[in-house]
Specification:
Strand content: 15-25%
Shape: globular
Order of helices and strands: EHEHEHEEEHH
Number of helices: 5
Structural class: alpha/beta
CATH architecture: Alpha-Beta Complex
CATH topology: Maf protein
Number of domains: 1
Low-confidence stretches: none
Distance between the termini: 15 Å
Largest sheet: 6 strands, mixed
Strand order of the largest sheet: 2-1-3-4-5-6
């Protein structure tokens, strides 16, 4: 049984300002006072998990125990079939220490080559953890294909090269409200809200 969040401070266990902004926007209707792990000076834990869920739980638990507050973490990435599932859980690491996602997208495109199947999906796992080590996790995914060159300067990460199925705009071209309707994070978020936030 998932534990309910009853309001107050909630640590968003990320140092990525784009991800923090997106999660805070999704949480806006609920009584959560969001604060980023980076703003609290919390270190980024080493992501040693072998799945999105393992890494989301690791980050959420580390933040919850360090801050003595409930913490929400996301682990997400793009999974490219023709690359054997890469970059997958290593999506952020492909961008290097400077978080250069233009470079990361070029690496994906270079490894794909001109004739590869461009089917891909985004995965997001949201984990809500508590200082006593209780944690609940929720997964969302959205399927699509990769485009080149990247399109749009909204969103973050690999958004400009990901075209969701049935859409004419990449995540990088969509306005935030449009993306919040269909994204992998939004799918996971709906499950999280139903289990832990909805009254």
């Amino acid at each position: 049984m998932a534990r309910r969040f009853s309001g107050g401070k909630l640590v968003i266990a990320t140092h990525n300002p784009g991800k923090l902004r997106e999660i805070a926007e999704l949480l806006a209707p609920y009584s959560a006072e969001c604060v980023g792990a980076g703003d609290l000076g919390l270190p980024e834990p080493t992501e040693t998990g072998e799945t999105f869920q393992a890494n989301a739980e690791l980050k959420a638990l580390a933040a919850a125990q360090a801050a003595k507050l409930p913490a929400l973490a996301d682990d997400s990435g793009v999974v490219v079939d023709a690359l054997g599932g890469a970059p997958g859980i290593y999506s952020a690491r492909w961008a290097g220490p400077k978080k250069d996602f233009a470079m990361a997208m070029q690496r994906v495109e270079r490894q794909l080559g001109p004739d590869a199947d461009r089917i891909a999906h985004f995965v997001s796992v949201l984990s809500l953890a508590w200082p006593d080590s209780h944690v609940d996790s929720f997964e969302g995914r959205v399927t699509g294909r990769l485009v080149w060159p990247p399109r749009g300067n909204r969103g973050f990460g690999y958004d400009p090269m990901f075209l969701p199925d049935g859409r004419s705009q990449t995540f990088g071209e969509m306005d935030p409200q449009g993306k919040h309707q269909i994204s992998h994070r939004a799918v996971a978020f709906r499950k999280l809200v139903e289990a832990c936030f909805a009254t």
